[in-house]
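INFO  loader      accepted 1 record
INFO  loader      residues=127
INFO  predictor   begin
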Amino acid sequence: MNKQWVILCVMIACLLSAVSCMASHLVAGEYDLVTRRWTWEVSGDHALADWLSIGYALRCLCSDWVWKAGVVPSWVPIRQDYEVWAQVRRGAWTLRVMDWCNHWLAQSHMPAWADEWGLTLRVQREW
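INFO  predictor   done
INFO  writer      dumping tokens
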């Protein structure tokens, strides 16, 4: 079996055991079969009241992985994304204000002006 898959299976098992202890948080890893890129994500939210919550999401896009000191697997990050938000819920309606940024790192060879950021307002209704 390929070393990559063994390492991935061990990491998933460790992450799944940690997730059960953190009910309102998520730790995830995904691999894109077409671009061959990894994305690692940590996200969560916290209710401040029954109608108000805050949350975050941090993602790291990695193009490849290497062995550090010939022992420790390490991914090469090319972009870091973050989102932080506040959300108000009233009945079936939700209003979310989100600050976000997609930041390209030096090893991506993207220019600094390629970073994107914004402040988003989302209105949602559930049926």
